[in-house]
Every structure is written in C-alpha cells, then in structure tokens.
Design the sequence.
C-alpha cells in the first residue's frame, strides 16, 4: 500500500483565499456571514449568506487568463477553476497524462440553471444566453477548465449531499493507496443560489441568528460559497518530484445510515461506523486523534447525533476528551465544498499549529458531550474531518501532520 | 476472477412513460411521494435483487449515475416558491430534488449500509458509477455493487437542449427531441462463470472543442486497447442532436479501429446516462447484442467507455 500525501491545495470561502486569509479568521472566530447580495432576498425568512469576494476572484483569475476567455463562466465555475489551477500550481504539477479528478458538487452550475428557468417560464428581463447552459452540468464546467488549463482529466463527479467533498477525497485516497494511480486532484465546490437558500429555509435548517454549533440554543446554519481542491500523491511520487508536503492522509471511512431522507440516525450509529472504519484503515488508536473538525451544522438533530457518534466510536474517555470544533460557524455550510474546505482547515491547523476554537458558543448543549475547543492553542498531529449528508451518507478522513518521512 | 454484470431495465419511450408507477407496480409506502426517477430506481433494483442474491447488506454499495437530478421536483419546488411565496416553499419538493435522492431511497428501501455514491453531470455518469463500484469491490470495501442508471428527462429538457443547439444549425427546422425515460439496475459482483464480465469502465474530459474531444476519446480507447487488443464491435452513444460531429470525433479518435464502430440508429430516442447501458446490455427480445463495448461522448465534452468480456449475458 502506498502512503498518500497532500502536495497541493487551494480553497476559497467567504473568509477569503487559502491559508493566509483563513488563519486569522479561524483563530479569532471571525464569521464570513453577511446580508446576501447575489440575489434579492426581500420577503425571505432569512437573508444571510457567506458569499465569496467575486471581484477578488476575478482579479486572481485575470492574472492568468484574459477576461474574454473567462466570459460566460459564472461564479461557481470560476471558483472551481481557481481552486483546480491553484492546487496544481501549489503542487508545481503539470500532468502530461490524464489526471484523475474527483470533484464533488451538489449544485453544479445550478445558479445559471435557475436563472434560465425563470427566464423561460416567466419571461423575466434577465437574459441568460442558452450557451451558458453548457456550464450548468459538472461535465461542462470541467470541460471549460480542461480547455483553459489544456489538461485531460479522468473525471468523476460525485454528489453525496453534504458528505460530497469528503467522499471525493476519500475515494481518490483509496485509489492512490492501493496503487491504481499515483497522483490526482480531489475536492468539492458549490455556490449559494436563491432556490437552494429557500430550500434549506423550507426545511427549517437556516438560522436567523449566528450559527452556533453544539450550543444549547443552536438553530441552524447559513449557506456559503466554497471550493476546495487538494492534490493527492503517493509518497514515492512526491519524493521523486521533490514536492512540498502539506500533510499525509492516513485513513478514510464511510457508511450509510439507511434511516431517514434528511435526518441523521439520532444515536450517531452511522457516523460512529464511519469513524471506526476510518481509524481501522489508518491503523491508529482513538486516543491518538488530536482534533476533530466536526460536521457541526448547528441543527439540533445533527450536532447531538454527531457528538454521540464521536463518543460511541472513540470510547467514553477519548471521545469526551478529544478537542472538537465546527468551522461552519464561520464559513457557513458550503454543501458540496464543505468536506473539502474543512479538510483544508484541518491541514491549516496541522501545518500552523493551532486548534480552531468553537465560535459563537454561549452555553454548550449537554446533549453534545464533546470537548469543544475554547482557545486557538495546541499543536495537533492527527486531525479528523467528519461529514454527514442528506440520505445518511457519512464520510470521515484522518490526516497526519507532515514531520518528515520517519516521524 | 472477473466482475460479473447482470442488469434489469424499466424503459418507456411514450411521453408519459413510467409516469404512473404506483399503479403499475406495488411500491412501498415510503415511496408514495417520491419522485418518479427514485421510484423507477427502486423498482428496477428490487426486480434485479429478487433474481440475484445481493449478499450481506452492510457489504453492499449503492451507486447511482444520472446526468441530471430530479428536474420534476426541482421545478416543482421553484414553482411553489413563486406560487406560495418564499416563506411557504415546499420542503417536500426540495428534499426530493436533491441530486442523491434516488440513492437515498435505494438505501432506505433496501437497507443497504455499505457505501453510497451518486455520480452526475455527464452522459458517462453511469459509467463512473460502475467504475466506482468495481474499485470498491477490488479494494475490499464492499462485496457487491448495485449500480443504477437513470434517464428521466422532462419537456423542459428538450427546450433547454434545443435552446443550446438550435442557434448552431443555421435556420434548420428544430427537430423533435425524442427522449426515453427509464432505469437500469445492475449488480456487479465477483462470480466465476456467471456470464458477461466487466472489462473496462472509464471516462475522460479534455474540453468541448472537436480536437479536444478527439483527444479524450483517443486516450480512453488506447487505454482499453492496450489491455484488450482483439477485435471488438462498438456502439457509439452520442447526443442525438450532435450525432454527426460526435461520430466524426469517434471515428477520428479510433483511427484504424473505426471499422469496429456500429452505425447508429439515428431515430433512437435520447436516454442520456442510461444510453450506453441500453445499447450494450438491453436485449428485450432475448437477442445477444452484437457489440461488447459502448463508447459515449457527452454533449458537454466528456467521453466514456464501457466494455464487457466473457460470454454475453
């Protein structure tokens, strides 16, 4: 079995771009939530979102491509284009053969699609050129990226609800680990759009207050833009290329609740099975986990089930002791990007030596018996990244700090 | 030992095909309000599994390939927000419009807890699902994979496709957009001497231009041919409105092997992610399909290849 290392990454959220923008925000507990600007939200129950800085995104892209070549690409495609290009640049990788690309998304280019549908059915003044429909699907979005980067991809477009990003990374990790390929990119992306916002609002999942995971008075989340892409590589390949290593992925576990369409199994049995499988694949003991980046959506059902699952899988002692936080309090729920962005947060914590504190916590819910991070201290060596999705899809990744080959 | 493939189909080419599944098939109560594609997914899977033993439920993976999620419920949700106002949008429509909804219903109804994955966004989504199922079996994560491919276009699909492609036909009459609605459930399992086996499933994306499509197709074909150099007849699967350019790209990519391409029936209805499986595995009259591979080119630029080995099922 090959060891699998991360040699490149790029990620963006409402807090900015990559480690340097996110580190201070995560340390300070600064949220990217703001009134939504992308679409009119008058009459909505909630109108808060976490939009990325589109002007800065465009400026970053235009350092590489002239604006005319980016015409017709909406914010979702631009975000994932930036993340794919950025991760490959970070890894100093220019692949000659088809590059495995596991990209996760729940919405693809839905924002364009809903605008076109409105134009078609309601004859609104908005004009979406039909050709832009080519980028409504993930295949069309990656085709645009392939042309701009002049690459050939071996693609898989996975959509596992909110566990999408972790599933994409975990699947590529397994392929590299068993020698099916040496290098690839994996991650996820999604952008806030009007009807997705209304959809989660209709389920009562969006909060009118600050997003406060594991708090006694938590009431849900806000949605945010996000994209995160990692370059995964076998250690042998990274060594041959002299690549800089951000961290080592050491385990992946997944499970299905088969319980309810939108609710997690309340005792956390599904996520507990995924955690146990992940620990087994990493060949580590529960007490070796130094930090858990929880799925932590701040909905009453999710946080309690996840906390119970953590304790069930790690045991009463380690499960209640390991530091836990949910960074969704700061960047919101980025859906298909969540698992990938949160994996980047784990790598940030491992590389720069701190634990992201649990933001917006007033009084911890006793139904969530985990050790929430209070201060940005510590020097974690192994981080766990949990994702729980609609339909009971659970995914867990374990990542180790890179201290050199023999550490 | 090869991975055996056994498939069951539910298909209809009539405009309201498979629209009244509740009447035609007894479905569980939990599916009463489910989208038609989820119902068809569960029904095809139930029929397949009643014939072939799936093995332990916690060692069973569920994989769905669908070019688009449930458009029916997606538009119903949007319409409900316009009709009733944003504060009264329908949570039922929304939860049924989520892209992995069919996979959710499959795991809920059948009780499979091994792993679950939905692949979307391209005609080769079903082929990606087969590849993922095969990888999981190889990796020892599952014992068997239930792969479901779906095609559930709505009238809106035709409008959207015509809107995209009509401007490029320079005044030609917009052709009728004939679609096929249906589902396929395929059981992938290690099984000696069980009939057709999986030889190859993969996809490539290099871009949308003709040259880059040829590059993607060629890369895929060459990878397959390195392992399987003998003669093999191939079904082409391309978007119906782009059959001409798509076929041209395939012929160019296959080079001397273009002689293996079976001329397509241009009157075939469009079946999106279900199409390569229909071509290769669907034999309604019990006839053995003459081809052992299906090469597909998505209108969005992704190429896919599914190839079989061993005796025909």
Sequence:
């Amino acid at each position: 079995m090959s060891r699998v290392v991360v040699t490149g990454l790029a990620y963006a959220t409402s807090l900015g771009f990559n480690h340097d923008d996110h580190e201070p925000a995560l340390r300070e507990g600064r949220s990217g939530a703001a009134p939504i600007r992308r679409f009119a939200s008058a009459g909505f129950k909630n109108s808060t979102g976490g939009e990325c800085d589109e002007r800065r995104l465009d400026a970053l892209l235009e350092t590489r491509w002239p604006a005319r070549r980016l015409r017709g690409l909406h914010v979702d495609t631009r975000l994932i284009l930036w993340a794919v290009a950025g991760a490959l640049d970070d890894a100093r990788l220019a692949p000659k053969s088809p590059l495995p690309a596991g990209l996760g998304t729940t919405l693809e280019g839905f924002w364009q699609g809903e605008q076109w549908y409105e134009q078609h059915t309601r004859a609104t003044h908005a004009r979406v050129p039909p050709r832009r429909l080519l980028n409504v699907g993930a295949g069309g979005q990656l085709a645009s990226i392939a042309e701009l980067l002049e690459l050939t991809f071996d693609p898989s477009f996975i959509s596992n609800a909110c566990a999408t990003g972790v599933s994409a990374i975990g699947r590529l990790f397994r392929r590299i680990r068993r020698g099916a390929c040496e290098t690839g990119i994996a991650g996820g992306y999604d952008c806030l759009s009007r009807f997705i916002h209304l959809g989660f609002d209709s389920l009562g999942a969006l909060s009118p207050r600050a997003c406060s995971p594991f708090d006694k008075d938590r009431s849900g989340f806000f949605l945010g833009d996000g994209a995160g892409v990692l370059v995964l590589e076998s250690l042998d390949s990274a060594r041959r290329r002299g690549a800089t290593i951000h961290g080592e992925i050491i385990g992946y576990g997944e499970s299905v609740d088969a319980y309810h369409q939108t609710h997690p199994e309340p005792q956390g049995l599904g996520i507990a099975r995924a955690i146990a499988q992940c620990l087994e694949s990493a060949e580590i003991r529960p007490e070796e986990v130094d930090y858990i980046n929880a799925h932590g959506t701040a909905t009453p059902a999710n946080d309690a089930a996840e906390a119970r699952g953590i304790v069930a899988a790690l045991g009463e002692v380690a499960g209640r002791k390991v530091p836990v936080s949910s960074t969704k309090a700061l960047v919101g729920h980025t859906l298909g990007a969540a698992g990938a962005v949160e994996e980047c947060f784990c790598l940030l914590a491992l590389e720069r030596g701190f634990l992201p504190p649990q933001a917006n916590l007033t009084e911890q819910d006793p139904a969530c018996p985990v050790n929430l991070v209070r201060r940005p201290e510590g020097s974690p060596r192994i981080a766990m990244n949990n994702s729980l999705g609609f339909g009971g899809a659970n995914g867990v990744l374990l990542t180790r700090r890179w201290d050199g080959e023999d550490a | 030992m090869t991975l055996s493939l056994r498939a069951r189909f539910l298909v209809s080419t009539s405009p309201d095909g498979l629209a009244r599944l509740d009447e035609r098939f007894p479905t569980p109560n939990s599916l009463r309000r489910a989208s038609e594609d989820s119902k068809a997914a569960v029904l095809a899977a139930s029929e397949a599994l009643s014939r072939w033993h799936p093995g332990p439920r916690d060692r069973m993976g569920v994989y769905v390939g669908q070019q688009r999620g449930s458009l029916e419920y997606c538009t119903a949700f949007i319409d409900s927000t316009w009709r009733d106002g944003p504060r009264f949008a329908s949570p039922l429509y929304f939860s049924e419009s989520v892209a992995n909804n069919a996979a959710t219903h499959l795991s809920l109804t059948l009780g499979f807890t091994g792993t679950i994955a939905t692949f979307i966004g391209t005609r080769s989504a079903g082929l990606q699902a087969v590849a993922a199922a095969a990888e999981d079996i190889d990796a020892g994560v599952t014992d068997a994979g239930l792969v479901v491919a779906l095609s559930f276009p709505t009238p809106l699909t035709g409008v959207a496709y015509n809107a995209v492609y009509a401007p490029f036909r320079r005044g030609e009459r917009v052709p009728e957009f004939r679609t096929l609605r249906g589902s396929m459930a395929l059981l992938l399992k290690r099984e000696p001497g069980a009939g057709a086996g999986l030889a190859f499933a993969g996809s490539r994306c290099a871009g949308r231009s003709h040259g880059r499509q040829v590059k993607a197709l060629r890369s895929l074909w060459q990878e397959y041919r390195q392992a399987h150099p003998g003669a093999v007849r191939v079904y082409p699967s391309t978007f119906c409105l782009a059959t001409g350019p798509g076929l041209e790209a395939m012929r160019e990519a296959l080079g001397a092997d273009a002689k293996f391409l079976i001329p397509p029936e241009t009157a075939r209805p469009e079946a999106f992610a279900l199409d390569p499986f229909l071509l290769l595995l669907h034999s309604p009259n019990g006839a053995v399909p003459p081809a052992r591979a299906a090469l597909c080119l998505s209108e969005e630029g992704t190429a896919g290849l599914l190839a079989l080995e061993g005796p025909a099922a």
In short: Chain A has two domains: 4-241, 250-401. The first helix of chain A runs from residue 18 to 28. The mean pLDDT of chain A is 95.
